[in-house]
Amino acid sequence: AMEERRYRSASGAPIALRRRQHSASCRELAVRCPRLQLRSLSAVTCAVWLAAYGLFVLSENSMVLSAAIFITLIGLIIYLHFVKIDQESLLVIGSLGIQVTSSYASGKESTTFIEMSQVKDVVINEAIHMQKVIYYLCILLQDPGDPQGVSEVVPLFQSSKPRLDCLIEVYKSCQEILEQRMTAPQSS
Protein backbone atom coordinates (compact mmCIF):
# COMPACT_ATOMS: atom_id res chain seq x y z
CA ALA A 1 0.00 0.00 0.00
CA MET A 2 1.27 3.45 -0.88
CA GLU A 3 0.24 6.67 0.80
CA GLU A 4 1.17 10.19 -0.20
CA ARG A 5 1.03 13.26 2.01
CA ARG A 6 1.75 16.87 1.16
CA TYR A 7 4.24 18.94 3.14
CA ARG A 8 6.43 21.98 2.64
CA SER A 9 10.18 22.35 2.36
CA ALA A 10 12.23 24.69 4.56
CA SER A 11 11.89 27.34 1.83
CA GLY A 12 8.10 26.90 1.65
CA ALA A 13 7.96 24.96 -1.63
CA PRO A 14 5.33 22.19 -1.82
CA ILE A 15 6.78 18.68 -1.50
CA ALA A 16 5.16 15.26 -1.24
CA LEU A 17 6.13 12.34 0.99
CA ARG A 18 5.32 8.89 -0.41
CA ARG A 19 5.42 5.95 1.97
CA ARG A 20 5.29 2.42 0.66
CA GLN A 21 5.37 -0.62 2.95
CA HIS A 22 6.86 -3.57 1.03
CA SER A 23 6.89 -5.85 4.07
CA ALA A 24 7.07 -5.59 7.88
CA SER A 25 10.80 -4.88 7.74
CA CYS A 26 11.02 -3.10 4.39
CA ARG A 27 9.82 0.43 3.77
CA GLU A 28 10.31 2.98 1.04
CA LEU A 29 10.11 6.69 1.80
CA ALA A 30 10.37 9.16 -1.05
CA VAL A 31 10.26 12.95 -1.00
CA ARG A 32 9.23 14.46 -4.33
CA CYS A 33 10.27 18.02 -5.12
CA PRO A 34 8.31 20.41 -7.32
CA ARG A 35 8.99 19.73 -10.98
CA LEU A 36 10.96 22.22 -12.99
CA GLN A 37 8.65 25.05 -14.05
CA LEU A 38 8.80 25.62 -17.80
CA ARG A 39 7.85 29.25 -17.18
CA SER A 40 10.88 30.01 -15.00
CA LEU A 41 13.13 28.09 -17.39
CA SER A 42 11.80 30.09 -20.39
CA ALA A 43 12.23 33.35 -18.46
CA VAL A 44 15.91 32.63 -17.75
CA THR A 45 16.55 31.55 -21.34
CA CYS A 46 14.82 34.67 -22.73
CA ALA A 47 16.76 36.95 -20.37
CA VAL A 48 20.11 35.43 -21.42
CA TRP A 49 19.23 35.59 -25.12
CA LEU A 50 17.91 39.17 -24.95
CA ALA A 51 21.09 40.29 -23.18
CA ALA A 52 23.13 38.50 -25.85
CA TYR A 53 21.08 40.15 -28.60
CA GLY A 54 21.71 43.56 -26.99
CA LEU A 55 25.44 42.85 -26.93
CA PHE A 56 25.28 41.65 -30.54
CA VAL A 57 23.60 44.90 -31.65
CA LEU A 58 26.25 46.93 -29.81
CA SER A 59 29.27 44.91 -30.87
CA GLU A 60 27.96 43.63 -34.25
CA ASN A 61 29.74 40.35 -33.47
CA SER A 62 27.64 37.29 -34.32
CA MET A 63 29.86 35.18 -32.04
CA VAL A 64 27.97 36.72 -29.08
CA LEU A 65 24.71 35.08 -30.21
CA SER A 66 26.34 31.70 -30.85
CA ALA A 67 28.04 31.84 -27.44
CA ALA A 68 24.76 32.72 -25.69
CA ILE A 69 22.92 29.78 -27.28
CA PHE A 70 25.80 27.43 -26.52
CA ILE A 71 26.13 28.59 -22.88
CA THR A 72 22.35 28.30 -22.31
CA LEU A 73 22.21 24.74 -23.69
CA ILE A 74 25.30 23.60 -21.75
CA GLY A 75 23.94 25.26 -18.60
CA LEU A 76 20.59 23.53 -19.03
CA ILE A 77 22.18 20.11 -19.53
CA ILE A 78 24.38 20.55 -16.44
CA TYR A 79 21.40 21.78 -14.38
CA LEU A 80 19.11 18.88 -15.35
CA HIS A 81 21.79 16.23 -15.07
CA PHE A 82 23.73 17.29 -11.96
CA VAL A 83 21.69 19.87 -10.01
CA LYS A 84 17.91 19.54 -10.27
CA ILE A 85 16.71 16.61 -8.17
CA ASP A 86 13.08 15.53 -8.63
CA GLN A 87 12.97 12.89 -5.92
CA GLU A 88 15.03 11.67 -2.98
CA SER A 89 14.20 8.29 -1.52
CA LEU A 90 15.15 5.92 1.26
CA LEU A 91 14.63 2.19 1.04
CA VAL A 92 15.01 0.79 4.56
CA ILE A 93 15.43 -2.99 4.65
CA GLY A 94 15.72 -4.27 8.21
CA SER A 95 17.99 -7.22 7.50
CA LEU A 96 20.15 -5.61 4.81
CA GLY A 97 20.56 -1.87 5.11
CA ILE A 98 19.46 1.53 3.85
CA GLN A 99 19.56 2.53 0.20
CA VAL A 100 19.60 6.28 -0.49
CA THR A 101 18.65 7.34 -4.02
CA SER A 102 18.53 10.74 -5.70
CA SER A 103 16.64 10.97 -9.01
CA TYR A 104 17.65 13.88 -11.23
CA ALA A 105 15.41 15.76 -13.66
CA SER A 106 17.31 14.22 -16.59
CA GLY A 107 16.39 10.71 -15.42
CA LYS A 108 19.85 9.99 -13.97
CA GLU A 109 19.90 8.33 -10.54
CA SER A 110 22.62 8.23 -7.92
CA THR A 111 22.41 5.55 -5.25
CA THR A 112 24.29 4.87 -2.03
CA PHE A 113 23.87 1.70 0.01
CA ILE A 114 24.68 1.55 3.71
CA GLU A 115 24.82 -1.89 5.31
CA MET A 116 22.70 -2.30 8.44
CA SER A 117 25.79 -3.34 10.45
CA GLN A 118 27.21 0.15 9.79
CA VAL A 119 24.03 1.96 10.87
CA LYS A 120 24.21 3.15 14.47
CA ASP A 121 21.04 5.25 14.38
CA VAL A 122 18.84 7.58 12.33
CA VAL A 123 18.39 10.96 14.01
CA ILE A 124 16.99 14.44 13.41
CA ASN A 125 19.66 17.09 13.88
CA GLU A 126 19.22 20.82 14.07
CA ALA A 127 21.50 23.38 12.53
CA ILE A 128 21.52 27.15 12.56
CA HIS A 129 21.64 28.62 9.07
CA MET A 130 21.40 32.39 8.47
CA GLN A 131 19.77 33.08 11.89
CA LYS A 132 17.24 30.32 11.24
CA VAL A 133 17.05 26.89 12.86
CA ILE A 134 16.74 24.17 10.25
CA TYR A 135 16.25 20.48 10.89
CA TYR A 136 17.68 17.62 8.89
CA LEU A 137 17.54 13.85 9.03
CA CYS A 138 20.77 11.91 9.07
CA ILE A 139 22.17 8.41 9.42
CA LEU A 140 24.85 7.97 12.07
CA LEU A 141 27.45 5.40 11.05
CA GLN A 142 28.98 3.10 13.64
CA ASP A 143 32.65 3.65 14.41
CA PRO A 144 34.28 0.20 13.94
CA GLY A 145 36.91 0.99 16.59
CA ASP A 146 34.56 2.39 19.24
CA PRO A 147 31.11 0.86 19.97
CA GLN A 148 29.89 4.17 21.47
CA GLY A 149 31.38 6.33 18.72
CA VAL A 150 30.09 7.68 15.43
CA SER A 151 32.43 7.50 12.44
CA GLU A 152 30.35 9.54 10.00
CA VAL A 153 27.11 11.49 9.70
CA VAL A 154 25.22 11.00 6.41
CA PRO A 155 22.66 13.79 5.86
CA LEU A 156 19.47 12.84 3.98
CA PHE A 157 17.07 14.84 1.77
CA GLN A 158 19.67 17.55 1.16
CA SER A 159 17.93 18.81 -1.95
CA SER A 160 14.26 18.74 -0.89
CA LYS A 161 14.99 20.00 2.67
CA PRO A 162 11.65 18.94 4.23
CA ARG A 163 10.33 20.75 7.30
CA LEU A 164 10.29 19.10 10.71
CA ASP A 165 6.74 17.65 10.46
CA CYS A 166 7.74 15.67 7.35
CA LEU A 167 11.10 14.61 8.84
CA ILE A 168 9.33 13.25 11.93
CA GLU A 169 7.19 10.96 9.72
CA VAL A 170 10.29 9.59 7.98
CA TYR A 171 12.12 9.32 11.32
CA LYS A 172 9.29 7.27 12.89
CA SER A 173 9.21 4.87 9.93
CA CYS A 174 12.98 4.35 10.10
CA GLN A 175 12.93 3.88 13.88
CA GLU A 176 10.20 1.21 13.67
CA ILE A 177 12.46 -0.89 11.45
CA LEU A 178 15.61 -0.14 13.48
CA GLU A 179 13.78 -1.19 16.67
CA GLN A 180 12.84 -4.53 15.05
CA ARG A 181 16.54 -5.05 14.44
CA MET A 182 17.28 -4.44 18.14
CA THR A 183 14.61 -6.91 19.31
CA ALA A 184 15.28 -9.52 16.63
CA PRO A 185 17.46 -12.46 17.71
CA GLN A 186 20.96 -11.94 16.35
CA SER A 187 21.60 -14.43 13.57
CA SER A 188 25.23 -15.37 13.05
UniProtKB/TrEMBL annotation:
Keywords on record: Membrane, Transferase, Transmembrane, Transmembrane helix
Pfam families attached to this UniProt entry: PIG-H
Domain named Phosphatidylinositol N-acetylglucosaminyltransferase subunit H conserved: residues: 89-158
GO terms for MF: transferase activity
Top-level lineage group: Eukaryota
Keyword Transmembrane helix: yes
Any one GO cellular component localisation term in the record: glycosylphosphatidylinositol-N-acetylglucosaminyltransferase (GPI-GnT) complex
Keyword Transmembrane in annotation: yes
GO BP terms, alphabetized: GPI anchor biosynthetic process
Stretches that traverse the bilayer: 41-58, 64-83
Pathway: Glycolipid biosynthesis; glycosylphosphatidylinositol-anchor biosynthesis
InterPro entries (UniProt xref): PIG-H (IPR044215), PIGH-H_dom (IPR019328)
UniProt cross-references to PANTHER family, sorted A to Z: PHOSPHATIDYLINOSITOL N-ACETYLGLUCOSAMINYLTRANSFERASE SUBUNIT H (PTHR15231)
Stated family: Belongs to the PIGH family.
Protein name: PIGH acetylglucosaminyltransferase
Natural source organism: Nyctibius bracteatus (Rufous potoo)
Taxonomic classification: Eukaryota, Metazoa, Chordata, Craniata, Vertebrata
